[in-house]
């Protein structure tokens, strides 16, 4: 099975107090992430500054020696607040090794400006851990003993 990605940050920042205010202040914020067999799925909230906008996630598995970027897709209907939009992404990480560390940051381009959410300069980081297989059935030490009837 593919390795499990363990977030080194709270995986549900959108559930923390003051999240809406952080989106208003910084223009873009990670809302949540979830590790799945196909990769890392997540959602981003952005301040609705203009109709035309682009949201993407830039990520690396080798401490930025190389990186890739995937676009995030607009998710209708938007949040009921009328001030923000939600975008969803999937980082395809099926071939990730158990020792890998995934780092990513979110980019929001709108009205000729660019905004980043990089977890206050630390990037969002997830550590790969090998999945532990279900415990093998333990064998009863007496199960191979002969039973003698007298």
Second CATH tier, the architecture: Sandwich
What is the N-to-C order of secondary-structure elements (H for helix, E for strand)?
EHEEEEEEEEE
Number of helices: 1
Low-pLDDT segments: none
Q: So what's the overall shape?
A: globular
Query: How many strand units?
Result: 10
What is the CATH class designation? Mainly Beta
Task: Give the integer mean of the pLDDT values.
Answer: 86
CATH level-four homologous superfamily name: Carbohydrate binding type-21 domain
Q: In this structure, how is the largest beta sheet organized?
A: 6 strands, antiparallel
Helix content estimate: under 10%
Oligomer: single chain
Secondary structure category: mainly beta
Report, as a whole number of angstroms, the end-to-end distance: 50 Å
Count of discrete domains: 1
Question: What does the model show?
Answer:
- It holds the Pfam family CBM_21.
- GO terms for molecular function: glycogen binding; protein phosphatase 1 binding.
- This is PPR3E phosphatase.
- One of its GO terms (biological process) is regulation of glycogen biosynthetic process.
- InterPro entries: CBM21_dom (IPR005036), CBM21_dom_sf (IPR038175), PP1_regulatory_subunit_3 (IPR050782).
- It is a single chain.
- The protein is mainly beta and about 150 residues long.
- It has a single domain, classed as Carbohydrate binding type-21 domain (Immunoglobulin-like, Sandwich), CATH 2.60.40.2440.
- Helices cover about 5% and strands about 45% of the residues.
- It has one helix and ten strands.
- The strands form two sheets. Strands 1, 4, 5, 8, 9 and 10 form a six-stranded antiparallel β-sheet that branches. A four-stranded antiparallel β-sheet has the order 2-3-7-6.
- Strand 8 and strand 9 form a beta hairpin.
- The longest helix is centred in the N-terminal third of the chain and has 8 residues.
- It is globular.
